[in-house]
Here is the input.
Amino acid sequence: MHPIRRLSWQALVMVADTLLSLACLVIPVAGILRRLRRGSGIPGLRYKCFGPSADLPSGRVVVHGVSLGEVGLMGLVVPELERVWRCSTLLTSTTDTGWQALQRHWQHHPRAWWPFDLPWAVERFLAVTRPRAVVLLELELWPRMLMACHRRGIPVYVVNARVSERSYRGYRRARGLIAPLLRPVPLALAQNARWGAHLRALGCQQVQVSGSLKADLVRLAAPDVVEDVRQRLNLDSQRPILLVASTSDDEERPCIKAWREACPDWQLVLCPRHPERGAQVAQALAHSGARLPVWRWSNAAAEPSADAVRIVDAIGHLSALYALADIAIVGGSLGSGRHGQNMLEAAAHGCATVVGMDTSNFPDAMTLLREANGVVETSVEDLAACLRRLTTDSSERERLAAAGRAGWRAACGSTQRCQRLLARVPPRIPR
Here is the structure.
C-alpha cells in the first residue's frame, strides 16, 4: 500500500497543519508585498488570516463562492436552499471581486470573508458561525476546513462541481490525501457525467449529475426588445449580420480585418465590453481602411445608413444583438488577457458562436458547447479563414448555431434538479 494511504486521520491533520503553518509565513507576506507594489490594500486580510468577528449570526447554512463567477450562481442556489431546507444562510467569498458582488447584490444577507485554510482561522470561523451545513459552489478543496467540518459533524455539500482534466490529473497524484476529505461529503452535484466520474474516482461516494447552473443564468431577450434594437440599428433583415461582442484592448482590430477579408458584404455590428471605448473602436475602423460610415449608439441622433458599421457603445443590448446575429465572435478570448466572456449567451440565442483560444474563465460553458459541437475555437491568425468558411457554408453555419442552442437547452433546468436532490438530504443541526 502507498505510504500516503496508510496515514491516519490524526496524522493527516498534523501534516496539513504543519504545512499550512509554514505556508502562512510566506504566502500572506508575498501577497502583501505584491499589493503594496501595486499601491493597493488587501481587503479582508485580517478576517482571512484570523477568522471573523464575533458579531456574525450562527446556526445558518454557509454558502461559499470563491470569486465573481461562483457568487453569480448564488442568485439561483440561495433562494432554493432556503426554501427546501427551511434555513437562513450566511454568504462568503474569497476574492475581492466576489466580495464586491456580495456587497452589491446581497445587502440584506449576512456576509463574511472565507478564512485562509489556517488552523486558527478555520477554528474561529466555525466556532463563531456554528453552521448547520456548508455548501461549496463548484469545487475548491480546503483541506483544513473540510477536516474541521467532518470532525464537528457539519455536512459539506458541493454544488455545480467541476473537475477539469488538468485538475483531475493533479488530484489523482494526491488521492491518498484527498479521498478522506471527499469520502464524508453527503452529496456532490456534478455538472456532467465526466466530472462526476472524476469525483467518484477521487473518493467522493455520493455523486449525482445535475447539469450546469450557468445555463440557467442565461436569459433570452424578449422579441419586442429584439425588434426595437433592430429598428434602432436600421438592420436589413435580408442581409446577414456579424456581431463582434464583448471586446477589449484592441480585440476589434483583428476582427475588423477578418471581416474585411472574409465577408465585407455582411452587416457588421461591434459591441465593446466597456461602452466608453466606443470612440476607440470607431478609430480602429477608420484606421482599417474600411470606407464606410460609422454609427455610434451613444451619440447618434438619427438612424444609421444601410451601409454603416454600427458600434453599440451602450449597456443592456447584448442579448438582443445575439438574437439578431447570424455569427457572433465573443471577445475577451482574442489576446486581451481577460480569459473569455460568456459564450453560452451567444449560443443560447441561436447564432453561430466563434471564440478565440483564451477562454479559461469559462471552462464549464466551453465544456458544454464543445460536447455539443456548438462552438468554433480559432486563433487570431486563422480568424479570417474561419469566417470565410462559415459565411460561405450556410449549412455548416446553421448546424453550428443549432448545436450550440441545443447544448444550452439540454443543460437548462439544473436549478430544479439541484433543488430536488438537495431536498432529500436536509442537514441536521450539529452537536
